[in-house]
Design brief:
Blueprint lengths: L1 E2 L2 E3 L4 E3 L1 H9 L9 E2 L8 E5 L13 E4 L8 H4 L5 E4 L8 E4 L4 E4 L19 H11 L18 H13 L7 E4 L2 E4 L4 E3 L13 E11 L5 E6 L3 E3 L2 E10 H6 L3 H12 L5 E8 L2 E5 L2 E6 L7 E4 L11
Parallel strand pairs: 9-10, 12-13, 16-19
Antiparallel strand pairs: 1-6, 2-3, 2-4, 4-5, 5-6, 7-8, 10-11, 13-14, 13-17, 14-16, 15-16, 17-20, 18-19
Bound molecules: zinc ion (ZN).
Length: 316
């Protein structure tokens, strides 16, 4: 049985696989086997697979596997899974879907300060006491630990990871993502960079993606991510890029992950990556030439992959 949430003994908190992955790369979690079932009174052993992989793909996505036995009264194994219902057609012939509010994921653009907190108590202390404390002290986990409810998303990487997970468990059509107060279908948030006119793009940030070349800037203080395809302004083709400065990487808690991926790719004979970023392009002009540029607020807003992690329809 798959679990959406587990209790991390090392972090002293309920975590979904995305947060487990973040905490592993931030050094708070060091062992993929130190998780237990989130159910009250249950200590079934749980492992988080693929925690240590710097790759994510349709085959490699972090997820929990239960190895131990659940307690007899465990609410997680005996409880109901997330309720997914399709209602009969309405009078207008439109299929009506009821979506439990728990399966609208909320994408937040800032992480709470407590996100990377290490446990204040000895992790070897009683796990049930630790679970109770985590439930009462961590505001963003109040609903965690019950069936199918996971925490907010704080990075583009986690949006991609959930998309992959929901596709594999066939719940994608029921899932929504809430960005800046708007609920949108998961399928509709990804936009390929492919010679679109700037005027035809959404007037708000979305997740843009595409293949890009990665190299160092001339000053050698940043990586340049130059998309293979351009954006257009009328008939003018604008080189489309984004920059990840060494200073930005250095300030990022998951710098090991980001630095590993960028540096590996930029040293390849063919230094290309499949890149996602949340933002909106702006035009800059330098020496008479105009460029489209995506400015990154922080590195949670970009995901750099060795290969296309999504199904083949996206891989172009
Ligand atoms: Zn259990």
């Amino acid at each position: 049985m798959a679990l959406d949430v587990a209790f991390s003994l090392e972090a002293g908190d309920f975590v979904d696989p995305d947060r487990a992955y973040d905490l592993y790369w931030a050094g708070v979690i060091t062992n993929k086997r130190l998780f237990v079932c989130p159910g009250a009174g249950c200590t079934a052993q749980v492992t988080c697979a693929n925690l240590d992989k710097d790759v994510q793909s349709m085959r490699v996505v972090p997820h929990f596997k239960v190895y131990g036995d659940h307690s007899e009264t465990c609410g997680v194994v005996n409880g109901k899974a997330v309720d997914l219902k399709v209602e009969p057609n309405g009078p207008d012939g439109q299929e009506r879907r009821t979506v439990d509010e728990s399966i609208v994921d909320v994408f937040k653009l800032e992480r709470p300060d407590s996100y990377y907190d290490e446990p204040t108590q000895d992790p070897a202390a009683d796990v049930q006491v630790a679970k109770k404390r985590a439930k009462s002290t961590r505001p963003y986990t109040t609903k965690l630990g019950e069936s199918g409810i996971v925490g907010p998303i704080y990075s583009v990487r986690s949006v991609v990871s959930r998309y992959i997970r929901y596709r594999s468990d066939n719940t994608l059509e029921f899932r929504r993502l809430n960005i800046a107060g708007q609920d949108v279908a998961y399928d509709s948030i990804f936009k390929c960079i492919w010679e679109q006119d700037l005027n035809d793009l959404p007037d708000h940030p979305v997740i843009y993606y595409g293949w890009a070349y990665i190299d160092r800037t001339r000053k050698d203080d940043a990586y340049r991510i130059k998309f293979k395809k351009c954006l257009m302004r009328g008939t003018e083709s604008l080189t489309t890029s984004s920059f990840v400065s060494d200073a930005l990487i250095d300030r990022y808690r998951l710098k090991n992950l980001m630095a590993t991926r960028l540096s590996k790719i930029s040293q390849e004979p063919k230094p290309t990556a499949f890149v996602f970023l949340y933002g909106q392009p702006t035009v800059r002009t330098s020496n008479g030439t105009s460029y489209a540029n995506f400015e990154l607020k922080n590195l949670d807003m970009i995901d750099v992959n060795y290969d296309c992690p999504l199904p083949s329809k996206y891989d172009r």
